[in-house]
Every structure is written in C-alpha cells, then in structure tokens.
Amino acid sequence: MGTALLYDEEMTKYKLLWVDAACKIEVPERLIVSYEALVRSGLSDRCISIPAREASDSEILLVHSELYLEAVKKTPYMTLEDLKEFTLQFGDVYFHPNIYHCAKLASGSALQLVDSVMTGKVRNGIALVRPPGHHSMHSAANGFCVFNNVAIAARYAKQKYGVKRVLIVDWDIHHGQGVQYCFEDDPSVLYFSWHRYEHQNFWPNLRESDYDSVGKESGAGFNINVPWNNVGMENSDYLSVFCHVLLPVAYEFCPDLVLVCAGFDSAIGDPEGEMCATPDIFAHLTHLLMNLAGGKLCAVLEGGYNLTSLAQSVCQTVQTLLGDPLPQLANLRGPCKSAVESLQCARSAHRRYWSFLKHATDPPMTDISTKHIKSAMEEEEKTEMAEEERCTEGKVWPEPPERLCPPVCSASVLPDDVACPDGLKRLSSSKDLEPLLVSKLKNRFRTAAVDGDGVTTFSRLYTLIEKLVANEIRNGLVLVPDVAAVMMCVVQDLTSDLVKRVLVVCVGKEKELDYVTTDGKVLVVQISSEDSEEQRSKYYIPVCLKKGCSDTSGFIQAVLGLLLPLGYEYNPDLVLLVRMPGSGVVDSMWQQLIGLLQGFAKGHTLVLMQVNEKACMGSTASALLGHPAPPLQDLQTPFPEDGDALERLRERLQADWKMLQTTS
Ligand SMILES: CC(O)(O)NCCCCN
Ligand SMILES: [Zn+2]
C-alpha cells in the first residue's frame, strides 16, 4: 500500500493584507516550497495524489461552535477594515476573504487523508495544508489557525470508522492548546506535545502548557506536555523524549490510528523555534511512529517558517512514509540538562497513569514545577549556551544525506532444502572466501560449521554482508544450523574489515557469549531470561527479563527504554539481530523489533536464525520487507523486578551512554 499526498494550490491563495509582526511569517510560500521540493525530488510522483475537499459544516461542528462557524462564514464578504476588526478578537491570527475557503480545504484534506488510510486505500499519508489548525479552539481562531484540522480529523475517525483510540503526536514547536482543550477529558484520544515554553515566557504563555497538565477527569493521563525551557534543542533531545516518554506510553495506549500535527518549526533555522534539530530528525520521528496502529499514520502540516528547513523536513517525512531507508544520525551526545529535567518531569507526572512509566523517579525538587528550578537551571544553561550559539535564521546546516533505495530490499541465505519466503531474493552466488579467511574459520570451528556446506554458507554470508555494506541490498535473513557459532564468526571474522561498528542484538540466550569487545567495534545487547553474572564491559549489555523474551511487556520496555537509545548513540553500520533457539519471543514483538531496528545503519539488518525456527521466517520476511508490524495487543504491566532492573541498568550505564539518561 502506498502513501497519500494531499495538496491543493488553492490553499496558497490567501495572505496577510496588513502589517502584523506576529503574523508576517505565515506566508503562502510555505506551502509552495514544500510541494515544489516534493516534486523536484521525485517524491510526489511516488505518492498517491488525493484531492482536497471542503470540510462540511457538520464536520467543522465536530470541534467548533455554531457561533464561531457562522462568524467565520461572514469573512469572505468583509471589507479590509471589517477583516481587521474581526481579527482583533483573536490572538496572533489574521483573516482574509479567501481564508474561510482555505480553512475548509485544510480540514477537508485531513478528512480525505483519514478516509484514504482507514479504508485501506493507502497505508499512510501527509496533507500539506494552510491555514494550520492546532491552536484553534471551540469558538476562537488563534496562532494562524482557523479550524482545528487534526482535532476534527480525530473526532471524524471515531465517528465514521469507530476508531477506539487515537494518538495525536504534535511535534510542532508550539503547544497545540486547541487540541489539548478538545480532548483533555477524553481517554480515547492521547495528545502528546512538546513545545518551546521557557517557563511560560514563550507564546502562547499558558500555565496549562506545562508538563503537569496531564488531562482531566477520565482523561487524566491522556495529555502529555513536554515543555522545552531552553532553545537550541538538538536531535538527541527529541529522540530521548520519544524513547523515554512518548513511545512507552504510545505502545501501552496501543492506538488504532496515529495523527501527527506535523509542524516543522521545531527544526533548525526556524525563527519561531530557534531549535537545532536537523531536518533528517523527522525521518526518524516518523519512522518511530510507523509501527503503531499497524502503520496507519496521517500527518497534517502545522507550522514551519524557515522555507529551507521546512522543505527539507517535509521531504524527510515523506521519504520515510514511502518506506525509504533512514539516514544515519551521527554524534548523538545525549540530552542536555534542561531536556533531561523536562522529560523527567513529564515521566514523573505520568507515572501514576502508565505502567510503563511506573519506575520514573521524581526530579530533585519537591515541587516538580519547572518554574522553581529556573534560577539554578538558567544560570547553568546560560553558561552552556552563549548567545551566539543560539540557533537562529543565520544558522546553517548540511543538506540531509541522500537516502538511496538498494536495488534489492531483502536477501536470504538458506540451506538448499529450505524454501525462500516470498519477496526475498535467495543469495546462492558467492565468491570464494580468501584462503586465509577459510583457514581462520577452520581453526576457529572444528565443528560441522565449516565442512563443505559450511564454507558455502560462510561465503554466501560474506557476500551478503558485502552487498549490505555496498547498499546493494537493504537487509538479509540467514538460516544456519548453529546460530551461536555463526554469530561469533560473523562478528569476529566476516565483518571486521567491512564495517566499523556492529550492533548485535541477541534475543534469548543459549549460552554465555564468550565474545566481549572493549574497542567498541561491536556492541552486544542481549535480552534473555537469565541474569549474566556481571557487567563485563561498556559494550556488552545483558538485559534480564524475569519471564524471559515471551514477556512482551518487559521486552518492549527494554527495547524502547534501552536498546533504541543505545542504538542511536552507538550509530552502527550494521545490525546483527540474532534469534537464539527457544527464545520464546512473540511473533508480533519480533516484527516490532525488526521494524524499529530499521532505524539504524540505513536499515542494514542481518537476521540470524536457527534452521529449526524456520516457522517464523514468514513474519521475519514481512518485517524485513517493510510491512508494518501488527500492534502489540493488551500489554500487561511489566514485572516490577524488570522495571526496577531496567531503571538500575540505565542509571549504571548512563555515565557511558548519555542517551540512557532519564534523571538529572
Ligand atoms: C501553527 C503554529 O503553531 O506554527 N502557529 C504558531 C503561531 C505563533 C504565534 N506567535
Ligand atoms: Zn508552530
């Protein structure tokens, strides 16, 4: 299934008709440069173009009052003076004779997108719209917004398709208070927003934008605010909040549909955000949401005022929606102090509502409101961030790297008597191994592993790895008689001269891995049921689950809160995912893991499985081919021992691995 793209140039046909410093950045060119970038890059041709339509009155009334709608209906007939007068009653927004028409098209586009996804016409999609929506309220326009496009889409999805749970992720740099007000008492809509806040000193300067607004009545716990109290936030800060706040809750919430308030003013260069995250971060934010709700994801444009970073960010988002390989993110050095403070406050405010946050620790202060921390914090941060470092318009950043699709998506190396799963390309050709390598293999394994057949297997495996590294193949599936033996061989002999860093994710444990690196060429994360006697090195991290890998709750908690942050910080060039026999990992969890690991090493994942587990080759192949993983149904509360152990492991490792930091 494909990716929908909604765009109609009619929505470029309104603009600010008078002088207003707050509104002058919201220009038609925002939409034009975004769409043109998609055309120029060839991405628009790869999408399924869906026509925009006007939202009907009844659809608009799902969120707004009749009074407000009737008033807005009159604006097309107003004189310039009337429009100015009408605008005065609202904040930081302007009206134009054609904005009502465009606002209906913007909301209608979001609804068209929901229809396309919910009917299975497409897997996911994006609507390039203006005016944006997330600030508009029941009876008020605000912050360049007239109708709340995403809030209307959420209500519409519930009403028309019986969607039970909607996750709204708002990565725009402003707080979508309109969305918060709409759903704050509604447990069927989980609203997550991060936003520039600066202890309430940034627009819209609302007390209720702080992290302690968790929702009301039955909606308590279903509103998550992460305030940024400093500018200059980077990729590390955004990914930390996804891994340690949003994703654990999103997986526990288990939405049927994901809507994204896709504002790109959170990108570097934007005059509103003054942040430093690069456009390719949106490739990863999109990717991290794509395994939820069976991949049903609708992104709707909100803000974004630097035309260069906006266009690049839109392209990064669309490319990920299309399933292209992700760019590697380099130098993730962990969240800054202020970000850790914010994520810790958000986690602790929600600890009582989400079992996946149960082990969150309180921030140092008794009163967790960030305002009281401000003095000490700001002194600290001011030194950390001298004025000139602040990210402003003058900031420059590299063009996002090309994300080339390898000619072959998934290849397999299988015993001759095992059928190749659909969609995978069987690798039979292989160049003979260097004699030196063969002798090394023989020396290493006197077992059957390197008899005639073994050498063929290894040479095919070597060829596969070469092709992964050369980006001729994206990922691979290998079935062998002895997984542990082959894993050692891959790590020690077959990759050493081909890649700089290998992330080995070992699911289950047949025996202790007798391979420990200290030079950092290999990072091993082993998730199993047995505790390993001790922590051997920074590069061998055993995660023990009380009930083993069959405990999906504990497993996903370890993946989101430990494996993902580690992987981002380590930034491997190859991921070796090893499924030890008898691991007991649940199929949907296995597919989720494969999906999430695609975020690393440009998707170069090599899955190693035992021949006797060939029954799960189908689901493995499906995940490797990029099909969305099935949702993890009714996750139980993770075992307290596991939650505690994970927290302790993070505390112990965070000195070495900054991305694990969740406590200040
Ligand atoms: C859509 C939006 O969140 O980018 N609007 C920002 C309005 C800022 C007014 N000072
Ligand atoms: Zn914004």
From TrEMBL:
A Pfam family annotated for this UniProt entry: Hist_deacetyl
Give start and end of each Histone deacetylase domain. 26-320
InterPro entries hit by this protein: HDACs, His_deacetylse_dom, His_deacetylse_dom_sf, Ureohydrolase_dom_sf
User: Superkingdom, according to UniProt?
Assistant: Eukaryota
Q: Which residues form a coiled coil?
A: none
User: What name does this protein carry?
Assistant: Histone deacetylase domain-containing protein
Question: SUPFAM superfamilies given for it?
Answer: Arginase/deacetylase (SSF52768)
